[in-house]
Write a structure and sequence with these properties.
Two copies of one chain form a homodimer.
Chain A lengths: L15 H7 L12 H11 L5 H12 L1 H6 L2 H8 L3 H10 L5 H16 L2 H10 L6 H23 L2 H13 L3 E5 L4 H13 L4 E3 L7 H5 L7 E6 L5 H12 L4 E5 L5 H5 L2 E4 L4 E2 L2 E2 L2 H21 L20
Parallel strand pairs in A: 1-2, 1-3, 3-4, 4-5
Antiparallel strand pairs in A: 6-7
Chain A binds a DNA duplex (30 and 30 nucleotides) through helix 1, helix 3 and helix 6.
DNA sequence: CCCGGGATGAAACAAATATTCCATCCTTCC
DNA sequence: GGAAGGATGGAATATTTGTTTCATCCCGGG
């Protein structure tokens, strides 16, 4: 799980000086918990606020990212006030100090970078006061959501298109995946079959995989799925295929993967985890898209001329299963 | 003008200590200027990097937001390394210190937050003005998102808990799934194995499945995953198991499923589709959660008394793979 | 088996940063 | 117009945070 540790966060034991001051704020009330509450709080206090405090508050609302990432000194300079003014503003709004005030802006940045309905979810999620199973389920669903979200933000469409191009030209597609990644290969194998695309999964229990590998040529291609800790068997087969000049399309979890180095093209799929168990949802989404994309590419661009610009948005390849 | 002052930024006069160290990095080269360059830089250095440095680098690529917003100490703690290791990593990559390294992540966060609204709009509209592959990818990612969303809205936590209860009591868990649902069984099989829970997948190619079914008793349990059009083999096996009074936990797509009728307990997983191809992301999320939940239930509630309310939110069962 | 040499962890140290204090300035009410 | 109260700026101080140092550990070569 992530976001466990928020430095400068409210809720950690207040330091003595902060505690002393917290009681002395004008409102004498609890500080706003999120950005929206803070905005309202400022609007309400607005009229009763001294000149410089108003100036600082206006700057804060106008440049929230600066507050989140800057230091008291840098912000003060940009807002043309003194650092002490920022501290006073924080106290005035009910915070124990500037750092607490700042953490609201940092949380906001975090949540913005994440997504939207995820934010709602995360806020709601703090209140899964129900059963143990409830917490587990929510944890894994959140991990799945985050994974999908991250994939759609980080996926390099051009790289995906290149992978599709490589696979569309292949005579036979070899599928390599073990252990945790295996379901991805299983699903692609099924989809390729449905789409009448020749694909072979290297998962035989009879140890003949190595012999099958030696039948692959540069005219074929392979899809290798592997995540840390990378299954030795997958690495070895990828190595063999690479040495035989078989184009390699790799789906792996980071640029640090040993597979990224030997790949012709590779895609990053980094899954979130809950309680140490990683999601597979993003990988499965990719494993669903890839075969369809290959089938479409073959329909339109192969064996005819290059990457013709065809207007359709919906694949003609129609539903299976 | 804004963003004039970036604390800890490169480009401001280097402090003496930083200058001294900057020359001593292994590469002796200029530090990466943006996140992508940094990622590549890490990938390149990867093989020559010591163990802890690799560990820190992996954490950095996996949790970029944490690096941006955290402190050296908080990050070190989360990545399970020493703060000094982070400084060493920064030096190794050509930065003058941790702060310079961190500023790359902060800049990235700034940019991300800036373009966030635009991207979100694009995703929601589905107006991917780019290539055909872009449209496909977005379609499948949207389908995955919707599936997860729907599952988290409609899932009946009590029913899930009952399923977990049934499976926790089973001596052996039989896994039944074919075709499109097969990856779910494959994944659960893997997880159960990792968790030392006895599970048997009925997917043998040698036609002995039926004989295995006859070995199941009422003390065991089965998980059947099947979606329309329901694979005949799965239906038949579910029927056999049901007749032998083996408790049946069914994961299927609607109340109309023939499997819902014969199930002891069943869960609804209805996936969205794109271009007729249904997602599997929600099902995989459920398939990830189920084995962990069973393992946890066994740890706490079994063979002791019933569904005791235990307070823990985080499973003691720790990460696999 | 012993001996370097690099890697690692822990803690001391240095720099940066937030916070507080106080003298001064403005404002406003008598 | 003068005094009192709060607001302000600037500098001193306290705290946090990043960095360096050094003793120890681990691994590979002789």
């Amino acid at each position: 799980m992530e976001y466990l540790f928020h430095p400068g966060q409210r809720g950690q034991g207040m330091k003595k000086s902060a505690r002393a001051k917290a009681a002395s704020n004008t409102a004498g009330l609890a500080p706003p918990l999120d950005f929206d509450a803070l905005r309202q709080s400022i609007a309400r206090a607005q009229s009763a606020l001294p000149r410089r405090l108003t100036q600082a508050a206006e700057y804060a609302l106008a440049h929230p990212d600066e507050i989140a990432l800057g230091t008291a000194a840098s912000i003060a300079s940009a807002a043309e006030v003194q650092p002490s003014t920022l501290v006073r503003l924080a106290h005035q709004l009910g915070f124990g100090g500037f750092s607490e005030f700042q953490s609201v802006f940092r949380d906001r940045l975090r949540l913005r970078a994440a997504t939207y309905d995820e934010r709602l979810r995360r806020i709601e999620q703090g209140t899964t006061d129900g059963s143990y199973e409830d917490a587990l389920l929510n944890g894994f669903l959140t991990a799945a959501r985050q994974s999908i979200e991250r994939l759609s933000e980080t996926i390099d469409v051009a790289a995906f298109a290149r992978c599709v191009g490589v696979l569309a030209k292949a005579e036979t597609i070899y599928l390599v995946a073990r252990r945790r990644a295996y379901p991805m290969a299983a699903h692609m194998s099924y989809s390729f079959g449905k789409l009448s695309i020749r694909a072979v999964t290297l998962d035989s229990a009879n140890g003949i995989d190595q012999e099958i590998v030696t039948m692959a040529t540069a005219k074929d291609a392979a899809i290798v799925c592997s995540f840390a800790p990378y299954a030795p068997a997958s690495l070895a087969q990828a190595q063999s295929l690479s040495e035989r000049h078989v184009p390699l399309v790799v789906l792996t979890d980071s640029a640090l993967s040993p597979l990224a180095a030997m790949a012709t093209h590779w895609l990053e799929v980094s899954e979130s985890d809950f309680a140490g168990f990683r999601s597979l949802s993003a990988g499965m989404a990719l494993a669903t898209a890839l075969p369809v994309a290959v089938a479409e590419r073959r329909r339109f661009s192969f064996p005819a001329a290059g990457p013709a610009a065809h207007g359709q948005k919906i694949p003609a390849t129609r539903g299976i299963a």
